[in-house]
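Before going further, learn to read the protein records used in this course. The integers have meaning only within a learned vocabulary of local backbone shapes. To see the layout at work, look at the sequence and tokens printed below.
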Amino acid sequence: MKLLGYLALALLLGVLDAFPISAQANETTWRALQKGGAVILMRHAVAPGIGDPAEFERGRCETQRNLSERGRAQARAIGRDLRERNISVAAVYASQWCRALDTARLMDIGDVKPAPWLDSFFRERSDKESRTRKAREHILDWQGPGNLLLVTHQVNISALVGSVIGAGEMIVVRPTDDKLQVLGRLSVGSY
């Protein structure tokens, strides 16, 4: 019976996690970004499916799950929203997966640096600890003056902050001492 209770709680939290955040919460998060010094953990834009095909190879987009037209439009719109709100992004890093690199590039908010420490470990579970540790180190080292944008995957973000995130969504954190203080969550526009 106890297991049933845990499952019900997990289901409820998952359902609540799927609902959009209030406009007021979004505005508070936008204001925090305008101050700078924060880190944006972003899941790549819409790329239909789960995981990657069996023949997946890094560096060969034709073997990967890629952005749909909807995902490409979503990435451009998110970049436009960041620019229109005058959000300073001082550095952009992305997973080496094509869907993450394409998302970051289509946002058009700065040079994109491929970062192996942001690569998905969905198929490479043994890399979870090392990638999460390395990403956490980069986040904790960030001091601004602008914001740091990290475009990665759901599993990576979940390992860092314990929250499930949808395609194109962002969780904004501020590095404080040895912790990641979650400032808010952004779901920009409707796609």
About this structure: Residues 89 and 147 are 5 Å apart (CA to CA).
